[in-house]
Design brief:
By secondary structure, the protein is of the alpha/beta class. Helix content is about 40%, strand content about 20%. The protein binds nicotinamide-adenine-dinucleotide.
Length: about 290
């Protein structure tokens, strides 16, 4: 069994981006600039945005973090996005989801200029991804594909099960794995809360992407010998032994599943850091496309 070390691969990608950004500056060009919008004070969202801003600083990208009160109106948020769309210095825009209930995620995503949509959530980018055209691919699935690529995991002709069909993880993941690319060319089953025989589908799969947000859902008896397991789940569960008062749990029962696998991602240190690396890559691409 080999650990898919997202921390390590993410560091490699970020080091490369740091050099690429420095090269742009030495050519007299600008540095990549990510604008991150955080609405409200959801602890997890705050942690994710802070990590993204920190990653920008590490690799010499500029970042702007806009903190808005959770009482901000949808029209105010739309006007802030319009300003960011028009700001020539801003290359990438991300609005951390989920948003408060009185704001429509859909309307906000639609308002972002697709050429700055580094989260890859805008329908223009989703459509291009489906068609296999160059686009911004949603950071988590993009990061997972980069991880699979780094470890040269063979995917062509393999059976893959993706558990979870969200627009930001499961659905794009199922499309990317089925695309005629390397990695790709899998035969994919997209599973969700209405799927019958999930256990059998998983037990027949060579690759399983667990993205449902249910701690330790995937057990050893659902996994075949030699399978590749990618654990996307991050759930905060109370843990009195931690200073924060919680521990992060993945969707895979790591202790019992890992001995059966060929490759597996840990939580934390697997998909999470790759999501950030992919976001940085998308931000760099957004700037490169301007030139
Ligand atoms: P979501 O709640 O939007 O979607 C969950 C999906 O799982 C749904 O499609 C649902 O149908 C499916 N599902 C729920 N219960 C199921 C069951 N018993 N059997 C089969 N399918 C079931 O979640 P999401 O936004 O896709 O996130 C999933 C998990 O991934 C969460 O834990 C989230 O925190 C995590 N996540 C991690 C990263 C990262 O960078 N590591 C990024 C995004 C999300």
């Amino acid at each position: 069994m080999q650990i898919l070390d997202g921390q390590f691969v993410s560091r490699l990608i970020k080091e490369r981006l740091k050099m690429d950004a420095a090269a742009l500056v030495s050519e007299g060009k600008k540095i990549p600039h990510l604008a991150a919008v955080l609405v409200g004070n959801n602890g997890a969202s705050e942690t994710y945005v802070t990590a993204k801003v920190k990653a920008c600083a590490e690799i010499g990208f500029k970042s702007t973090m806009l903190r808005l009160d959770d009482s901000v109106s949808e029209s105010k948020l739309l006007s802030i996005i319009e300003d960011l769309n028009g700001d020539m210095d801003v290359d990438g825009i991300l609005v951390q989801l989920p948003l408060p209930k009185h704001i429509s995620d859909e309307r906000i995503i639609l308002a972002i200029d697709p050429s700055k949509d580094v989260d890859g959530f805008h329908p223009v980018n989703v459509g291009k991804m489906v068609l296999g055209s160059p686009s911004f691919i949603s950071a988590t699935p993009h990061g997972i594909m980069l991880l699979i690529e780094h470890y040269k995991i063979k995917t062509a002709g393999k059976k893959a099960a993706v558990i979870g069909r969200s627009n930001i993880v499961g659905r794009p993941m199922s499309i990317l794995l089925s695309t005629n690319t390397t990695p790709g060319n899998c035969t994919v089953t997209l599973c969700h809360s209405h799927t019958h025989n999930l256990k059998d589908i998983c037990a027949e799969s060579d690759i399983i992407i667990a993205a449902l947000g249910k701690p330790e859902f995937l057990r050893a008896d659902m996994v075949k010998e030699g399978a590749v397991i990618i654990d996307v789940g991050i759930t905060r569960v109370p843990d009195a032994t931690k200073k924060s008062g919680f521990a992060l749990k993945g969707d895979v029962a790591f202790a019992e599943v890992s001995p059966k696998c060929s490759f597996i991602t840990p939580v934390p240190g697997g998909v999470g850091p790759m999501t950030i690396a992919a976001l940085m890559k998308n931000t760099f691409t957004a700037l490169k496309r301007k030139y």
